[in-house]
Amino acid sequence: MAESSVRPRPTTWATAPNRHIVVGSNTLVYRHLGPENGVPLVLLTHLGATLDEWDPRFVDALARDRRIVALDLPGVGGSTGRVPGTVAAMARAAEGFVTTLGLTQMDLLGFSLGGFVAQQVALDAPGLVRRLVLAGTGPAGGTGIDRPTGGAYVYWDMARAAMARTDAKEFLFFPRTPAGKAAAKAYLARLRERVMDRDAPITLSSFHRQITTIRGWGRAEPQDLSRIGAPTLIANGDHDRMVPTELSHDMHARIPGSTLIIYPGAGHGGVFQHVDEFVDAVRAHLHTDS
């Protein structure tokens, strides 16, 4: 059943309640905020992430004049079911959520794993996606994607984070430069701003299923990205070790008319290290007339 628009929506990420919607055999958790009208921006997040991984500074800035919808796909956070075994199945789950919510068109932003899913949705349901944003992500068959935790540095970074009693994203998403360290601390502090109704953490089994799905995406045959007709913004840091930065250049070369932004001195979380600039870029991209 589509969500009622009678109740005013919250205007901040910290106060947006967790909502639940039945999609097929699963109950999915999502948050919805911002104005009542206009094409909504749907957010799809990264490996291991729940709703609480979205940067409130980013979401709140966009929600000032745009509907924002963020969801947990099956098996993630508070959503029931199992993590789908392929990116295509994840895309179908996202499409099912959107149509069940009563939306006929959306703007779509995917970060990292969410960017894989966003590409697939844009290819499978082109009429559903008005504009597309791909951040810190890469195409099917992209070199290095099939090793999401295969590099020794990733395990070392996770171990360092455990020893430092901090979030692994401090090491995985941000460079260990003075600017990168400061950006990491600020980002993680923002993630802790929400104290009410926090999402359930991802389970270890769901995390491992996501890794298997990512490996399958990395080993898949390349897709014809020239079929993506939605105007597309691509963004990344200049030294992304998790989804190599060169894959952003590859997508830019293959998606007609796409725009590419590479943030200097930044890694996988470059769009959060340069959050204000990224907000401006996304706003400009979404508000440009077709």
Word description of this protein:
Keywords: Hydrolase. It holds the Pfam family Abhydrolase_1. It comes from Streptomyces roseus. This is Alpha/beta hydrolase. This protein is α/β, with parallel strands linked by helices and 290 residues long. The protein has a single domain (19-287), classed as Rossmann fold (3-Layer(aba) Sandwich). It is 37% helix and 16% strand. It contains 10 helices and 8 strands. α8 links the parallel β7 (232-237) and β8. The protein is globular. The protein starts with 18 loop residues before the first strand and ends with a helix.
Q: TL;DR of this structure?
A:
This protein has 290 residues and is of the alpha/beta class.
Q: Tags for this entry?
A:
8-stranded mixed sheet; 16% strand; 37% helix; 10 helices; alpha/beta; 290 residues; Rossmann fold
Strand order of the largest sheet: 1-2-4-3-5-6-7-8
Per CATH, the architecture is 3-Layer(aba) Sandwich
Structural class: alpha/beta
Give the CA-based shape.
globular
Counting H and I runs of at least 4 residues, what is the number of helices? Answer: 10
- State the CATH topology: Rossmann fold
- Provide mean pLDDT, rounded: 92
**Total beta strands:** 8
Low-confidence stretches: none
- In angstroms, what separates the terminal alpha carbons? 31 Å
CATH class category label: Alpha Beta
Bin the strand percentage.
Answer: 15-25%
Largest β-sheet summary: 8 strands, mixed
Q: What is the succession of H and E elements?
A: EEEHEHEHEHHHHEHEHH
State the CATH superfamily name: Alpha/Beta hydrolase fold, catalytic domain
Our count of domains comes out at 1
Query: How big is the Rg?
Result: 17 Å
Helix content: 25-40%
